[in-house]
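Training component of the fellowship. As part of building independent skills, the fellow (R.M.) carried out the full modelling exercise for a liganded target. The chosen ligand was 1-deoxynojirimycin. The inputs are recorded below so that the supervisory panel can assess the work.
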Amino acid sequence: MTKLVILLIIAAANCQELDWWEGGNFYQIYPRSYMDSDGDGIGDLQGIKSKLAYVKGLGMDGVWLSPIYKSPQADFGYDISDYRGINAEYGTLEDFDEVIAECERLQLKLILDFVPNHTSDEHEWFNKSEASVPGYEDYYIWRDGKIDPYTNLLVPPTNWISFFRYSAWRWSNIRKQFYLHQFHYKQPDINYRSPKLVQEMKDVLSYWMQKGVAGFRIDIIVCLFEKMFEDGTFPDEPIDNPNCDYNDPCYLNHIYTQDQNETYDMAYQWRELLDNFKILNGGDTRIMMTESYAAVEKAQRFYGDGDRKGSYVPFNFEIIKNLNQNSTAKDYKNTIDSWLDHMPKKTGIQANWVLGNHDQHRAASRLGVDRGDLLNILVQTLPGIAITYQGEELVMTNVHLTWEQTVDPQACNTHDPVNYESSSRDPARTPFPWDDTKNGGFSTNDTTWLPAGKNYETVNVKAQEAATNSHLKIFRRLTTIRKQPVFRQGTYAGTLLNNDNVFAYKREYENQVAVILLNFGTTQQTVNVTSAFSGVPAQLKIYTSSLSSGMTNGADVLSTNVVIGKDIGVVLLSSTVSAEY
Ligand code: NOJ
Ligand code: MG
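Fellow's submitted model of the complex:
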Protein backbone atom coordinates (compact mmCIF):
# COMPACT_ATOMS: atom_id res chain seq x y z
CA MET A 1 0.00 0.00 0.00
CA THR A 2 2.71 2.48 1.10
CA LYS A 3 4.77 1.40 -1.91
CA LEU A 4 1.88 2.16 -4.22
CA VAL A 5 1.43 5.64 -2.74
CA ILE A 6 5.15 6.37 -3.15
CA LEU A 7 5.03 5.18 -6.76
CA LEU A 8 2.06 7.42 -7.46
CA ILE A 9 3.84 10.40 -5.94
CA ILE A 10 6.91 9.74 -8.12
CA ALA A 11 4.70 9.40 -11.18
CA ALA A 12 3.00 12.70 -10.38
CA ALA A 13 6.34 14.43 -9.85
CA ASN A 14 7.61 13.17 -13.20
CA CYS A 15 4.46 13.98 -15.03
CA GLN A 16 5.26 16.86 -17.36
CA GLU A 17 1.74 17.16 -18.71
CA LEU A 18 0.93 20.83 -19.18
CA ASP A 19 -2.54 22.28 -19.13
CA TRP A 20 -3.72 23.50 -22.56
CA TRP A 21 -3.02 27.18 -21.88
CA GLU A 22 0.45 26.67 -20.41
CA GLY A 23 3.00 27.62 -23.03
CA GLY A 24 -0.02 28.24 -25.24
CA ASN A 25 -0.10 30.19 -28.46
CA PHE A 26 -2.87 32.79 -28.77
CA TYR A 27 -4.09 34.82 -31.72
CA GLN A 28 -6.19 37.98 -31.54
CA ILE A 29 -8.83 38.54 -34.20
CA TYR A 30 -10.34 41.99 -34.68
CA PRO A 31 -13.69 40.77 -36.08
CA ARG A 32 -14.53 43.94 -38.02
CA SER A 33 -11.41 43.50 -40.13
CA TYR A 34 -10.75 39.78 -40.48
CA MET A 35 -13.08 38.46 -43.16
CA ASP A 36 -16.36 39.76 -44.58
CA SER A 37 -18.63 36.89 -45.68
CA ASP A 38 -21.68 38.88 -46.82
CA GLY A 39 -20.09 41.69 -48.80
CA ASP A 40 -21.21 44.60 -46.61
CA GLY A 41 -17.63 45.81 -46.14
CA ILE A 42 -17.53 44.72 -42.48
CA GLY A 43 -15.96 41.54 -41.13
CA ASP A 44 -18.32 39.03 -39.52
CA LEU A 45 -18.66 35.71 -37.71
CA GLN A 46 -19.15 33.59 -40.82
CA GLY A 47 -16.04 35.25 -42.22
CA ILE A 48 -14.12 34.31 -39.08
CA LYS A 49 -15.50 30.78 -39.21
CA SER A 50 -14.22 30.36 -42.75
CA LYS A 51 -10.72 31.37 -41.64
CA LEU A 52 -10.37 29.39 -38.41
CA ALA A 53 -8.56 26.62 -40.27
CA TYR A 54 -5.97 29.23 -41.25
CA VAL A 55 -5.61 30.22 -37.56
CA LYS A 56 -5.27 26.60 -36.53
CA GLY A 57 -2.74 26.14 -39.32
CA LEU A 58 -0.71 28.97 -37.82
CA GLY A 59 -0.18 26.67 -34.85
CA MET A 60 -2.52 28.44 -32.45
CA ASP A 61 -4.10 26.93 -29.33
CA GLY A 62 -6.54 29.74 -28.65
CA VAL A 63 -8.17 32.60 -30.46
CA TRP A 64 -9.39 35.79 -28.78
CA LEU A 65 -12.11 37.75 -30.54
CA SER A 66 -12.43 41.46 -29.87
CA PRO A 67 -16.08 42.25 -28.96
CA ILE A 68 -18.80 40.76 -31.17
CA TYR A 69 -21.75 41.79 -28.98
CA LYS A 70 -24.62 44.07 -29.80
CA SER A 71 -23.23 47.60 -29.92
CA PRO A 72 -23.84 51.01 -31.47
CA GLN A 73 -20.10 50.87 -32.36
CA ALA A 74 -19.18 54.23 -30.85
CA ASP A 75 -15.93 52.52 -29.82
CA PHE A 76 -16.16 49.69 -32.35
CA GLY A 77 -17.73 47.12 -30.06
CA TYR A 78 -16.24 48.19 -26.72
CA ASP A 79 -19.57 49.93 -26.09
CA ILE A 80 -21.96 47.05 -25.50
CA SER A 81 -25.73 47.46 -25.49
CA ASP A 82 -26.50 43.76 -24.88
CA TYR A 83 -23.92 41.42 -23.35
CA ARG A 84 -25.88 38.37 -24.46
CA GLY A 85 -26.53 39.29 -28.09
CA ILE A 86 -24.45 39.44 -31.26
CA ASN A 87 -24.04 42.67 -33.23
CA ALA A 88 -26.23 42.28 -36.33
CA GLU A 89 -23.36 43.38 -38.61
CA TYR A 90 -21.40 40.38 -37.34
CA GLY A 91 -24.21 37.82 -37.43
CA THR A 92 -26.46 35.98 -35.00
CA LEU A 93 -26.22 33.68 -32.01
CA GLU A 94 -26.63 30.79 -34.48
CA ASP A 95 -23.54 32.03 -36.33
CA PHE A 96 -21.75 32.17 -32.99
CA ASP A 97 -22.72 28.55 -32.29
CA GLU A 98 -21.24 27.64 -35.66
CA VAL A 99 -18.00 29.41 -34.76
CA ILE A 100 -17.85 27.49 -31.49
CA ALA A 101 -18.53 24.21 -33.29
CA GLU A 102 -15.80 24.95 -35.83
CA CYS A 103 -13.37 25.74 -33.01
CA GLU A 104 -14.24 22.43 -31.38
CA ARG A 105 -13.72 20.59 -34.66
CA LEU A 106 -10.32 22.22 -35.07
CA GLN A 107 -9.44 21.87 -31.37
CA LEU A 108 -9.03 25.61 -31.02
CA LYS A 109 -10.09 27.35 -27.82
CA LEU A 110 -12.32 30.41 -28.17
CA ILE A 111 -11.72 33.40 -25.87
CA LEU A 112 -14.22 36.27 -25.82
CA ASP A 113 -13.58 39.88 -24.91
CA PHE A 114 -15.36 40.78 -21.65
CA VAL A 115 -15.88 44.54 -21.24
CA PRO A 116 -16.74 45.04 -17.57
CA ASN A 117 -15.86 48.69 -16.97
CA HIS A 118 -18.64 50.25 -19.01
CA THR A 119 -21.67 49.49 -21.14
CA SER A 120 -23.08 51.47 -24.03
CA ASP A 121 -25.37 54.37 -23.10
CA GLU A 122 -27.90 52.44 -25.21
CA HIS A 123 -27.84 49.47 -22.81
CA GLU A 124 -31.19 48.86 -21.16
CA TRP A 125 -29.52 49.14 -17.73
CA PHE A 126 -28.34 52.64 -18.51
CA ASN A 127 -31.73 53.77 -19.73
CA LYS A 128 -33.31 52.43 -16.56
CA SER A 129 -30.63 53.92 -14.35
CA GLU A 130 -30.90 57.30 -16.03
CA ALA A 131 -34.66 57.20 -15.45
CA SER A 132 -34.06 56.15 -11.80
CA VAL A 133 -36.10 52.95 -12.24
CA PRO A 134 -36.10 51.26 -8.80
CA GLY A 135 -33.34 48.67 -8.51
CA TYR A 136 -31.23 50.27 -11.24
CA GLU A 137 -30.44 53.67 -9.69
CA ASP A 138 -26.91 52.71 -8.67
CA TYR A 139 -25.90 50.58 -11.69
CA TYR A 140 -23.77 53.48 -12.91
CA ILE A 141 -21.75 56.20 -11.20
CA TRP A 142 -24.06 59.19 -10.80
CA ARG A 143 -23.11 62.31 -8.89
CA ASP A 144 -24.32 65.86 -8.47
CA GLY A 145 -22.15 68.58 -9.92
CA LYS A 146 -20.39 71.39 -8.03
CA ILE A 147 -20.84 75.13 -8.28
CA ASP A 148 -17.66 76.77 -9.50
CA PRO A 149 -17.02 79.61 -6.99
CA TYR A 150 -15.52 81.84 -9.69
CA THR A 151 -18.04 81.43 -12.48
CA ASN A 152 -21.02 80.33 -10.42
CA LEU A 153 -21.61 77.64 -13.06
CA LEU A 154 -22.41 73.99 -12.47
CA VAL A 155 -19.29 71.88 -13.12
CA PRO A 156 -18.54 68.13 -12.91
CA PRO A 157 -17.92 66.57 -9.47
CA THR A 158 -14.17 66.00 -10.07
CA ASN A 159 -11.41 67.02 -12.50
CA TRP A 160 -11.14 63.49 -13.95
CA ILE A 161 -10.32 63.25 -17.65
CA SER A 162 -11.49 60.58 -20.09
CA PHE A 163 -9.00 58.38 -21.98
CA PHE A 164 -10.50 59.92 -25.10
CA ARG A 165 -9.91 63.52 -23.82
CA TYR A 166 -12.13 66.05 -22.03
CA SER A 167 -14.04 65.61 -18.78
CA ALA A 168 -14.87 62.05 -17.76
CA TRP A 169 -18.28 63.30 -16.56
CA ARG A 170 -21.34 64.03 -18.66
CA TRP A 171 -24.53 65.74 -17.66
CA SER A 172 -27.82 63.88 -18.04
CA ASN A 173 -30.79 66.12 -18.55
CA ILE A 174 -33.07 63.25 -17.61
CA ARG A 175 -31.50 62.33 -14.30
CA LYS A 176 -30.20 65.87 -13.62
CA GLN A 177 -26.88 64.45 -12.51
CA PHE A 178 -23.48 63.72 -14.03
CA TYR A 179 -22.40 60.17 -14.93
CA LEU A 180 -18.83 58.92 -15.11
CA HIS A 181 -17.36 57.71 -18.41
CA GLN A 182 -13.66 56.92 -18.42
CA PHE A 183 -13.86 56.44 -22.20
CA HIS A 184 -16.37 57.79 -24.75
CA TYR A 185 -19.46 59.55 -23.35
CA LYS A 186 -21.38 56.70 -24.95
CA GLN A 187 -19.53 54.31 -22.59
CA PRO A 188 -20.87 55.04 -19.08
CA ASP A 189 -18.87 53.39 -16.26
CA ILE A 190 -20.58 50.62 -14.31
CA ASN A 191 -20.78 50.86 -10.51
CA TYR A 192 -19.06 47.85 -8.90
CA ARG A 193 -20.23 48.99 -5.49
CA SER A 194 -23.68 47.73 -6.44
CA PRO A 195 -23.90 44.03 -5.40
CA LYS A 196 -26.76 43.45 -7.85
CA LEU A 197 -24.65 44.75 -10.73
CA VAL A 198 -21.68 42.64 -9.64
CA GLN A 199 -23.91 39.57 -9.86
CA GLU A 200 -25.28 40.61 -13.27
CA MET A 201 -21.75 40.74 -14.65
CA LYS A 202 -20.87 37.34 -13.18
CA ASP A 203 -23.99 35.94 -14.84
CA VAL A 204 -22.72 37.26 -18.17
CA LEU A 205 -19.49 35.29 -17.73
CA SER A 206 -21.45 32.13 -16.87
CA TYR A 207 -23.75 32.63 -19.87
CA TRP A 208 -20.84 32.55 -22.35
CA MET A 209 -19.12 29.69 -20.55
CA GLN A 210 -22.36 27.70 -20.91
CA LYS A 211 -22.09 28.37 -24.63
CA GLY A 212 -18.66 26.79 -24.67
CA VAL A 213 -16.12 29.58 -24.53
CA ALA A 214 -12.75 28.74 -22.98
CA GLY A 215 -12.22 32.06 -21.28
CA PHE A 216 -12.13 35.82 -21.47
CA ARG A 217 -9.85 38.70 -22.26
CA ILE A 218 -10.81 41.32 -19.71
CA ASP A 219 -10.91 44.83 -21.05
CA ILE A 220 -9.41 47.76 -19.10
CA ILE A 221 -9.80 45.94 -15.80
CA VAL A 222 -7.73 48.61 -14.00
CA CYS A 223 -10.64 51.07 -14.12
CA LEU A 224 -13.33 49.02 -12.32
CA PHE A 225 -13.22 51.03 -9.08
CA GLU A 226 -12.59 54.67 -8.23
CA LYS A 227 -11.38 55.87 -4.86
CA MET A 228 -14.43 57.01 -2.86
CA PHE A 229 -14.77 58.81 0.47
CA GLU A 230 -17.27 57.63 3.08
CA ASP A 231 -19.68 60.40 2.16
CA GLY A 232 -19.73 59.11 -1.42
CA THR A 233 -17.64 61.90 -2.90
CA PHE A 234 -14.52 61.41 -4.98
CA PRO A 235 -11.12 63.15 -4.81
CA ASP A 236 -9.64 65.25 -7.63
CA GLU A 237 -6.58 63.74 -9.25
CA PRO A 238 -3.24 65.56 -8.96
CA ILE A 239 -1.57 67.08 -12.00
CA ASP A 240 1.04 64.74 -13.44
CA ASN A 241 2.34 66.53 -16.48
CA PRO A 242 1.66 70.27 -16.74
CA ASN A 243 3.04 70.22 -20.29
CA CYS A 244 0.13 68.10 -21.45
CA ASP A 245 -3.00 69.79 -22.72
CA TYR A 246 -5.35 70.02 -19.72
CA ASN A 247 -8.01 68.15 -21.74
CA ASP A 248 -5.65 65.25 -22.29
CA PRO A 249 -5.52 62.23 -19.95
CA CYS A 250 -1.72 62.60 -19.63
CA TYR A 251 -2.34 65.87 -17.73
CA LEU A 252 -3.40 64.00 -14.57
CA ASN A 253 -1.88 61.28 -12.44
CA HIS A 254 -4.61 58.63 -12.33
CA ILE A 255 -4.10 57.50 -8.76
CA TYR A 256 -7.81 57.56 -7.90
CA THR A 257 -9.39 56.19 -11.09
CA GLN A 258 -7.09 53.23 -11.72
CA ASP A 259 -5.54 50.25 -9.90
CA GLN A 260 -7.62 50.44 -6.70
CA ASN A 261 -7.41 47.49 -4.29
CA GLU A 262 -11.06 46.52 -4.85
CA THR A 263 -10.27 46.01 -8.55
CA TYR A 264 -7.86 43.18 -7.80
CA ASP A 265 -10.41 41.61 -5.49
CA MET A 266 -12.96 41.59 -8.32
CA ALA A 267 -10.41 39.96 -10.62
CA TYR A 268 -9.82 37.21 -8.06
CA GLN A 269 -13.59 36.71 -7.68
CA TRP A 270 -13.86 36.23 -11.46
CA ARG A 271 -10.99 33.76 -11.44
CA GLU A 272 -12.81 31.82 -8.74
CA LEU A 273 -15.99 31.86 -10.82
CA LEU A 274 -14.12 30.47 -13.83
CA ASP A 275 -12.41 27.76 -11.80
CA ASN A 276 -15.69 26.81 -10.08
CA PHE A 277 -17.36 26.55 -13.46
CA LYS A 278 -14.85 23.88 -14.40
CA ILE A 279 -15.34 22.05 -11.11
CA LEU A 280 -19.12 22.05 -11.51
CA ASN A 281 -19.42 21.55 -15.27
CA GLY A 282 -16.21 19.77 -16.24
CA GLY A 283 -14.32 20.46 -19.43
CA ASP A 284 -10.99 22.19 -19.80
CA THR A 285 -9.66 25.09 -17.75
CA ARG A 286 -11.33 28.44 -18.53
CA ILE A 287 -8.76 31.19 -18.56
CA MET A 288 -8.72 34.94 -18.12
CA MET A 289 -6.35 37.42 -19.74
CA THR A 290 -6.27 40.85 -18.07
CA GLU A 291 -5.50 44.17 -19.70
CA SER A 292 -3.32 46.48 -17.60
CA TYR A 293 -0.71 48.93 -18.86
CA ALA A 294 0.30 49.76 -15.30
CA ALA A 295 3.81 49.33 -13.91
CA VAL A 296 4.99 45.69 -13.77
CA GLU A 297 4.26 45.30 -10.06
CA LYS A 298 0.67 46.42 -10.51
CA ALA A 299 0.05 44.47 -13.73
CA GLN A 300 1.42 41.38 -11.99
CA ARG A 301 -0.88 41.76 -8.99
CA PHE A 302 -3.44 40.22 -11.34
CA TYR A 303 -1.51 36.94 -11.04
CA GLY A 304 -3.02 36.77 -7.55
CA ASP A 305 -2.17 37.82 -4.00
CA GLY A 306 -1.18 35.27 -1.38
CA ASP A 307 -3.51 32.29 -1.64
CA ARG A 308 -5.91 34.06 -3.97
CA LYS A 309 -5.54 33.12 -7.59
CA GLY A 310 -5.79 35.72 -10.32
CA SER A 311 -5.39 36.10 -14.03
CA TYR A 312 -3.92 33.23 -16.01
CA VAL A 313 -2.51 35.81 -18.40
CA PRO A 314 -1.93 39.33 -17.07
CA PHE A 315 -0.90 40.79 -20.44
CA ASN A 316 2.77 41.69 -20.48
CA PHE A 317 2.87 45.11 -22.17
CA GLU A 318 6.49 45.84 -21.26
CA ILE A 319 7.69 45.56 -24.88
CA ILE A 320 4.87 47.86 -26.04
CA LYS A 321 5.53 50.39 -23.27
CA ASN A 322 9.33 50.48 -23.28
CA LEU A 323 10.67 49.72 -26.73
CA ASN A 324 10.85 51.39 -30.13
CA GLN A 325 12.77 51.25 -33.42
CA ASN A 326 15.98 52.42 -31.73
CA SER A 327 15.88 49.97 -28.84
CA THR A 328 19.09 48.06 -28.28
CA ALA A 329 19.81 44.47 -27.31
CA LYS A 330 20.26 45.73 -23.77
CA ASP A 331 16.85 47.45 -23.80
CA TYR A 332 15.24 44.20 -24.93
CA LYS A 333 17.06 42.12 -22.35
CA ASN A 334 16.17 44.55 -19.55
CA THR A 335 12.53 44.61 -20.60
CA ILE A 336 12.31 40.82 -20.70
CA ASP A 337 14.19 40.39 -17.42
CA SER A 338 11.94 42.93 -15.75
CA TRP A 339 8.84 40.80 -16.36
CA LEU A 340 10.56 37.53 -15.45
CA ASP A 341 12.27 38.88 -12.35
CA HIS A 342 9.12 40.47 -10.95
CA MET A 343 6.91 37.41 -11.41
CA PRO A 344 5.63 36.13 -8.05
CA LYS A 345 7.55 33.07 -6.94
CA LYS A 346 4.69 30.63 -7.00
CA THR A 347 3.62 27.67 -9.07
CA GLY A 348 0.84 27.71 -11.61
CA ILE A 349 1.73 30.97 -13.32
CA GLN A 350 3.34 31.63 -16.68
CA ALA A 351 5.08 34.53 -18.41
CA ASN A 352 3.56 35.89 -21.62
CA TRP A 353 4.82 37.99 -24.51
CA VAL A 354 2.95 40.56 -26.58
CA LEU A 355 4.07 42.80 -29.45
CA GLY A 356 0.84 44.55 -30.33
CA ASN A 357 -2.93 44.64 -30.41
CA HIS A 358 -5.79 46.66 -31.90
CA ASP A 359 -4.95 49.66 -29.68
CA GLN A 360 -1.34 50.07 -30.78
CA HIS A 361 0.31 50.98 -34.01
CA ARG A 362 1.55 47.92 -35.89
CA ALA A 363 4.44 46.19 -34.11
CA ALA A 364 6.67 46.33 -37.19
CA SER A 365 6.03 50.07 -37.62
CA ARG A 366 6.78 50.77 -33.96
CA LEU A 367 9.67 48.39 -33.42
CA GLY A 368 11.26 48.28 -36.87
CA VAL A 369 10.07 46.67 -40.11
CA ASP A 370 13.47 45.08 -40.64
CA ARG A 371 13.09 43.45 -37.25
CA GLY A 372 9.72 41.88 -38.06
CA ASP A 373 10.88 38.27 -38.12
CA LEU A 374 13.31 38.82 -35.27
CA LEU A 375 10.38 39.99 -33.12
CA ASN A 376 8.28 36.94 -33.97
CA ILE A 377 11.27 34.73 -33.16
CA LEU A 378 11.52 36.45 -29.77
CA VAL A 379 7.85 36.07 -28.83
CA GLN A 380 7.65 32.46 -29.97
CA THR A 381 10.83 31.22 -28.28
CA LEU A 382 10.76 32.90 -24.86
CA PRO A 383 9.39 30.81 -21.97
CA GLY A 384 5.63 31.00 -21.43
CA ILE A 385 2.70 32.11 -23.54
CA ALA A 386 2.89 33.85 -26.95
CA ILE A 387 0.19 36.25 -28.14
CA THR A 388 -0.07 37.44 -31.75
CA TYR A 389 -2.29 40.19 -33.13
CA GLN A 390 -3.73 39.38 -36.56
CA GLY A 391 -1.26 40.35 -39.28
CA GLU A 392 1.90 40.14 -37.19
CA GLU A 393 2.54 36.76 -38.80
CA LEU A 394 2.76 38.62 -42.16
CA VAL A 395 4.78 41.49 -40.64
CA MET A 396 2.02 43.93 -41.55
CA THR A 397 2.82 47.62 -41.14
CA ASN A 398 0.63 50.66 -40.34
CA VAL A 399 -1.79 51.74 -43.01
CA HIS A 400 -1.85 55.49 -43.51
CA LEU A 401 -5.39 56.90 -43.37
CA THR A 402 -6.37 60.48 -44.05
CA TRP A 403 -8.21 62.58 -41.48
CA GLU A 404 -11.39 62.06 -43.52
CA GLN A 405 -10.94 58.28 -43.48
CA THR A 406 -10.26 58.19 -39.73
CA VAL A 407 -13.06 56.79 -37.55
CA ASP A 408 -11.39 55.95 -34.23
CA PRO A 409 -12.96 58.16 -31.50
CA GLN A 410 -9.57 58.49 -29.80
CA ALA A 411 -8.25 60.20 -32.95
CA CYS A 412 -11.43 62.09 -33.86
CA ASN A 413 -11.50 63.64 -30.37
CA THR A 414 -8.16 65.33 -31.02
CA HIS A 415 -9.98 67.58 -33.54
CA ASP A 416 -6.56 67.89 -35.10
CA PRO A 417 -6.43 67.11 -38.84
CA VAL A 418 -2.64 67.41 -38.76
CA ASN A 419 -1.46 65.41 -35.75
CA TYR A 420 -4.37 62.97 -35.34
CA GLU A 421 -2.42 59.97 -36.58
CA SER A 422 -0.31 59.42 -33.48
CA SER A 423 -3.56 59.07 -31.47
CA SER A 424 -5.34 56.95 -34.06
CA ARG A 425 -5.72 53.21 -33.66
CA ASP A 426 -7.09 52.81 -37.19
CA PRO A 427 -3.68 52.20 -38.86
CA ALA A 428 -3.56 48.78 -37.15
CA ARG A 429 -7.25 47.97 -37.67
CA THR A 430 -7.49 47.86 -41.45
CA PRO A 431 -8.79 44.79 -43.33
CA PHE A 432 -6.69 41.65 -43.19
CA PRO A 433 -4.96 40.90 -46.53
CA TRP A 434 -5.81 37.41 -47.73
CA ASP A 435 -4.77 37.73 -51.37
CA ASP A 436 -4.12 40.28 -54.13
CA THR A 437 -7.72 40.71 -55.27
CA LYS A 438 -9.96 43.69 -54.42
CA ASN A 439 -9.68 44.76 -50.75
CA GLY A 440 -7.03 42.08 -50.31
CA GLY A 441 -9.76 39.45 -50.56
CA PHE A 442 -11.34 40.74 -47.35
CA SER A 443 -14.61 41.89 -48.91
CA THR A 444 -16.30 42.09 -52.30
CA ASN A 445 -17.78 45.50 -51.47
CA ASP A 446 -16.47 48.58 -53.27
CA THR A 447 -15.89 50.24 -49.93
CA THR A 448 -14.95 48.69 -46.61
CA TRP A 449 -15.35 50.21 -43.13
CA LEU A 450 -11.68 51.12 -43.23
CA PRO A 451 -9.79 50.86 -46.51
CA ALA A 452 -7.32 48.00 -46.97
CA GLY A 453 -3.66 48.99 -47.00
CA LYS A 454 -2.32 49.67 -50.49
CA ASN A 455 0.46 47.11 -50.09
CA TYR A 456 -1.98 44.20 -49.91
CA GLU A 457 -0.95 43.30 -53.47
CA THR A 458 2.35 42.01 -52.12
CA VAL A 459 1.81 41.61 -48.37
CA ASN A 460 -0.90 38.96 -48.20
CA VAL A 461 -1.43 35.39 -47.07
CA LYS A 462 -1.64 33.91 -50.56
CA ALA A 463 1.62 35.47 -51.73
CA GLN A 464 3.42 34.45 -48.55
CA GLU A 465 2.10 30.89 -48.88
CA ALA A 466 3.30 30.72 -52.49
CA ALA A 467 6.79 32.10 -51.84
CA THR A 468 9.63 29.66 -51.14
CA ASN A 469 10.22 31.53 -47.92
CA SER A 470 8.24 34.33 -46.29
CA HIS A 471 7.39 35.93 -42.95
CA LEU A 472 4.41 33.61 -42.74
CA LYS A 473 6.48 30.51 -43.37
CA ILE A 474 9.04 31.57 -40.77
CA PHE A 475 6.22 32.22 -38.32
CA ARG A 476 4.81 28.75 -38.89
CA ARG A 477 8.19 27.10 -38.40
CA LEU A 478 8.40 28.93 -35.09
CA THR A 479 4.99 27.85 -33.86
CA THR A 480 5.77 24.27 -34.87
CA ILE A 481 9.07 24.00 -33.02
CA ARG A 482 7.60 25.75 -30.00
CA LYS A 483 5.57 22.63 -29.28
CA GLN A 484 8.82 20.76 -28.48
CA PRO A 485 9.63 20.32 -24.77
CA VAL A 486 12.76 22.46 -25.04
CA PHE A 487 10.52 25.48 -25.65
CA ARG A 488 7.47 24.44 -23.65
CA GLN A 489 9.33 23.40 -20.55
CA GLY A 490 12.98 24.23 -21.06
CA THR A 491 15.04 26.45 -18.78
CA TYR A 492 15.89 29.94 -19.93
CA ALA A 493 19.18 31.85 -19.63
CA GLY A 494 19.76 35.14 -21.41
CA THR A 495 22.85 37.28 -21.94
CA LEU A 496 24.30 40.13 -24.00
CA LEU A 497 27.14 39.36 -26.40
CA ASN A 498 29.43 41.16 -28.87
CA ASN A 499 29.67 44.48 -27.02
CA ASP A 500 25.98 44.39 -26.22
CA ASN A 501 24.97 44.18 -29.88
CA VAL A 502 23.48 40.71 -29.61
CA PHE A 503 20.84 39.42 -27.25
CA ALA A 504 21.30 35.66 -26.88
CA TYR A 505 19.44 33.07 -24.88
CA LYS A 506 19.60 29.37 -24.31
CA ARG A 507 16.65 27.10 -23.74
CA GLU A 508 17.46 23.64 -22.39
CA TYR A 509 15.48 20.55 -21.56
CA GLU A 510 17.15 17.24 -20.70
CA ASN A 511 19.64 16.73 -23.55
CA GLN A 512 17.97 19.25 -25.89
CA VAL A 513 19.41 22.70 -26.46
CA ALA A 514 18.12 25.70 -28.41
CA VAL A 515 20.08 28.92 -28.80
CA ILE A 516 18.45 32.09 -30.06
CA LEU A 517 20.58 34.95 -31.34
CA LEU A 518 19.09 38.38 -32.04
CA ASN A 519 21.35 41.03 -33.54
CA PHE A 520 20.10 44.49 -32.57
CA GLY A 521 23.38 46.12 -33.61
CA THR A 522 24.04 48.17 -36.72
CA THR A 523 26.58 45.76 -38.23
CA GLN A 524 27.07 42.06 -38.88
CA GLN A 525 28.30 40.12 -35.85
CA THR A 526 30.26 36.89 -35.43
CA VAL A 527 29.02 35.22 -32.29
CA ASN A 528 30.80 32.65 -30.18
CA VAL A 529 27.93 30.82 -28.52
CA THR A 530 30.15 28.46 -26.51
CA SER A 531 31.85 31.37 -24.79
CA ALA A 532 28.46 32.50 -23.51
CA PHE A 533 26.72 29.29 -22.50
CA SER A 534 27.87 25.97 -21.13
CA GLY A 535 26.53 22.69 -22.45
CA VAL A 536 26.15 23.82 -26.05
CA PRO A 537 27.30 21.23 -28.62
CA ALA A 538 30.13 22.19 -30.97
CA GLN A 539 27.73 22.15 -33.90
CA LEU A 540 24.20 23.50 -34.09
CA LYS A 541 21.63 23.41 -36.85
CA ILE A 542 19.93 26.49 -38.24
CA TYR A 543 16.23 25.86 -37.70
CA THR A 544 14.89 29.19 -38.97
CA SER A 545 16.02 32.80 -39.28
CA SER A 546 14.84 36.19 -40.51
CA LEU A 547 13.87 36.32 -44.17
CA SER A 548 16.87 38.38 -45.25
CA SER A 549 19.44 36.45 -43.17
CA GLY A 550 21.02 34.58 -46.08
CA MET A 551 21.08 31.51 -43.80
CA THR A 552 19.82 28.09 -44.86
CA ASN A 553 17.48 26.03 -42.73
CA GLY A 554 19.09 22.73 -41.82
CA ALA A 555 22.65 23.97 -42.36
CA ASP A 556 25.19 23.16 -39.65
CA VAL A 557 27.09 25.97 -37.97
CA LEU A 558 30.04 25.92 -35.61
CA SER A 559 28.90 27.18 -32.22
CA THR A 560 32.09 29.20 -31.94
CA ASN A 561 31.45 31.07 -35.14
CA VAL A 562 27.89 32.10 -36.02
CA VAL A 563 27.75 35.02 -38.45
CA ILE A 564 24.55 37.00 -38.15
CA GLY A 565 23.52 40.18 -39.97
CA LYS A 566 22.02 43.38 -38.60
CA ASP A 567 18.39 43.08 -37.38
CA ILE A 568 18.55 39.31 -37.98
CA GLY A 569 17.26 36.68 -35.59
CA VAL A 570 18.16 32.98 -35.76
CA VAL A 571 17.02 29.84 -33.95
CA LEU A 572 19.77 27.23 -33.57
CA LEU A 573 19.04 23.71 -32.34
CA SER A 574 21.08 20.78 -31.11
CA SER A 575 20.57 17.63 -33.18
CA THR A 576 18.73 16.12 -30.21
CA VAL A 577 15.70 18.39 -30.79
CA SER A 578 13.31 16.67 -33.13
CA ALA A 579 12.69 19.08 -36.00
CA GLU A 580 11.96 19.03 -39.70
CA TYR A 581 14.44 20.71 -42.00
C1 NOJ B 1 -9.36 48.84 -24.16
C2 NOJ B 1 -9.70 48.36 -25.52
O1 NOJ B 1 -8.71 47.50 -25.98
C3 NOJ B 1 -9.90 49.58 -26.38
O2 NOJ B 1 -10.00 49.27 -27.74
C4 NOJ B 1 -11.11 50.31 -25.88
O3 NOJ B 1 -11.25 51.54 -26.55
C5 NOJ B 1 -11.03 50.58 -24.38
N1 NOJ B 1 -10.50 49.50 -23.61
C6 NOJ B 1 -12.37 50.89 -23.83
O4 NOJ B 1 -13.16 49.73 -23.79
MG1 MG C 1 -19.96 41.45 -43.31
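The panel noted the following from the submitted structure. Confidence is low (pLDDT under 50) at residues 1-15. The radius of gyration is 25 Å.
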